[in-house]
Design goal:
It is a single chain. The chain is α/β, with parallel strands linked by helices. It contains 14 helices and 16 strands. Strands 3-4-2-1-7-9-10-8 form an 8-stranded mixed beta sheet, sandwiched between helices. Strands 12-13-11-14-16-15 form a 6-stranded antiparallel beta sheet. A two-stranded antiparallel sheet has the order 5-6.
Length: 447
């Protein structure tokens, strides 16, 4: 058995959705078993739902609901499916937005509730299409009704440790059906709907795959696999045939949008391969991600990725010099403010860190707290660039090649970091320097 996950672009219009149904049928024919299907919301619909929540505060309710309903009905019509599918969800959404207007506030908990309607609608549509194509046992099930339980960190929740056992037990009555599961959403122990972050449907697929012990987790995208770099910047970027879990995790964390950063964790723990495939070219081999990748002495760097819109935080204090506990106090401040650090570099009297938290009020609070122990400088509009590859740790002079390429682009590095695993080198530049630096590096390492 496999998990087949279809993203928003793959669910973007009637023709694309039909293509996904054909892929499911092809898999059934090839394997003789029914896959577990996980779907995202229709493309861009989550943004419309979040915008609807904001507009509801000001009393604009009917307009946003009409836009969302129109998109849903157009897809149903294009698939020759009854208009009644999802009507209860649309009615529930309208009532929820009226409630938001009454309280004149939209909280993270309410944002999650509103955004959940995207997957709840698309899963019903896809299951109905499969039934119309002769798969009478196909049914749409919300992930939280199959044991997907999370903590209460709304808009960025994480599954609880017992979720895997709950899923395995809850799925048993549905094991012989063609099940379509909502990606992205779960419920906490209080019964409130939660979401696991943008692009979280990949993570949902990995969690269900690990819980059910499947043979493979397939992530169907609108790209031919994990690429050597961002194809919107590098026109001749090409897909990579194979990656290790560690390489893929680094790439996802540092900006490769093909996979959710947490996707690898459940698959890694169970040793389940993840295959990234192209919805619009299903015969293409894609990229397979396994516990152990392959190294190539001629191409030690597998991919060059970047993570833009970062914030650089410089902390300087002479009290750091030879003082116990200073770093612990500093990290406690970050924890208290719920700010995650991406990169870090230290000297005797200073620490430089980056984060993707950009909200002004959060950074102001962080600054005030840090200024109690040190001098603080905060700079926005930065970008982390990462070179990733298992072969890098066996290649002499690779860092010199990278930094020479950046220097040739007339760009100064603002921060450099390399982990002990030596499968990546990361450094910091300005957002405005991304095209120049990425093109130079790709030419250096891929010709």
């Amino acid at each position: 058995m496999v998990v087949m996950k279809f993203g928003g672009t793959s669910m973007g219009n009637p023709d694309a959705i039909r293509r996904c149904a054909e892929l499911v049928e092809r898999d059934i024919k090839q394997r003789g078993k029914k896959p577990v299907v996980v779907v995202s919301a229709y493309s861009k619909i989550t943004d419309k739902l979040l915008d609807a929540a904001k507009r509801a505060v000001k009393g604009d309710i009917d307009g946003p609901v009409h836009e969302i309903a129109k998109r849903h009905h157009e897809i149903l019509k294009g698939l020759d499916l009854p208009k009644e599918i999802g009507e209860k969800n649309l009615s529930e959404l309208h009532d929820l937005l009226r409630g938001i207007h009454m309280v004149k506030e939209v909280t993270p908990r309410l944002y999650d509730y509103v955004s959940s309607f995207g997957e709840r609608l698309s899963s019903k549509t896809f299951a109905a299409l499969l039934r119309a194509r002769g798969h009478g046992d196909s049914e749409a099930i919300n992930a939280y009704d199959l044991g997907f339980t999370t903590d209460s960190r709304f808009m960025n929740a994480r599954p609880l440790p017992d979720t895997y056992e709950k899923i395995a037990e809850a799925f048993k009555p549905h094991a012989h059906k063609l099940v379509v599961i909502t990606g992205f959403i779960g419920k906490d122990k209080n019964g409130d709907i939660t979401t696991i972050g943008r692009s979280g449907s990949d993570y949902t697929a990995a969690i269900f795959g690990a819980a059910l012990g499947v043979d493979e987790i397939q992530v169907w995208k609108d790209v031919p696999g994990v690429m050597t770099s961002d194809p919107t910047v590098i026109k001749d970027a090409h897909p990579l045939p194979k990656l290790s879990f560690e390489e893929a995790s680094e790439l996802a964390y540092y900006g490769a949008e093909v996979l959710h950063p947490a996707t690898m964790v459940p698959a890694m723990k169970r040793g389940i391969p993840v295959r990234v495939l192209h919805t619009f070219d299903p015969e293409a081999p894609g990229t397979v991600i396994t516990p152990h990748g392959e190294t190539d002495s001629k191409h030690p760097v597998k991919s060059i990725v970047y993570k833009e819109d970062q914030v650089l935080i410089n902390v300087r204090s002479e009290r750091m010099l030879g003082t116990e506990g200073f770093m612990a106090r500093m990290f406690n401040i970050f924890e208290r403010n719920h700010i995650v650090i991406d990169m870090i570099s230290t000297s005797e009297v200073s620490v430089s860190m980056t984060t993707d938290v950009t909200e002004g009020h959060k950074l102001d609070t962080l600054r005030r707290d840090l200024e109690e122990i040190a001098k603080v400088d905060i700079q926005k509009d930065k970008c982390i660039v990462a070179l990733v590859g298992e072969g890098m740790k066996h290649t002499v002079g690779l860092a010199a090649r990278a930094f020479k390429s950046v220097a040739a682009s007339q760009v100064s590095l603002q921060m450099i970091s390399q982990g002990a695993s030596e499968i990546n080198i990361t450094f910091l530049i300005d957002n405005s320097q991304i095209p120049t630096v990425i093109k130079g590096l790709h030419k250096e390492f891929f010709g």
